[in-house]
């Protein structure tokens, strides 16, 4: 507190203004709207490969298995 009293009022005011500007800049957001944020987020996730479709053979395997079960049941009952 004494260091502020020893400075002249103009220097103290400039110091406080600089501290306030520094504090405000810490809370600034890069995006001005939520749409900009979501667009950037989706672009980043696409670059990481999160939205690519993976090939899964489970549906085809289950279909063939069910078809074989039905065919086996028909052959047993016929």
Question: Describe it for me?
Answer:
It is a single chain. The protein is an all-alpha fold and 78 residues long. Helix content is 74%, strand content 0%. It contains 4 helices and no strands. The termini are far apart.
State the shape. Answer: rod-shaped
Low-confidence stretches: none
What gap, in angstroms, lies between the N and C termini?
Answer: 100 Å
Give the helix tally.
4
Number of strands: 0
The oligomeric state of the chains shown is: single chain
Mean pLDDT: 83
Order of helices and strands: HHHH
Indicate the proportion of strand residues. Answer: under 5%
The biggest beta sheet reads: none
Structural class: mainly alpha
Radius of gyration: 34 Å
Binned, the helix content reads over 70%
Topology of this structure?
Elements: H1 2-6, H2 9-26, H3 34-48, H4 58-77
């Amino acid at each position: 507190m004494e260091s502020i009293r020893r400075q002249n009022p103009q220097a103290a005011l400039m110091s406080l203004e600089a501290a306030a500007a520094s504090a405000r800049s810490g809370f600034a957001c890069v995006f001005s709207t939520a749409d900009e944020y979501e667009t950037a987020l989706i672009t980043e996730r696409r670059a990481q490969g999160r939205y690519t479709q993976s090939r899964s053979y489970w549906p085809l395997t289950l279909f063939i298995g069910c078809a074989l079960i039905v065919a086996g049941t028909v052959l047993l009952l016929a």
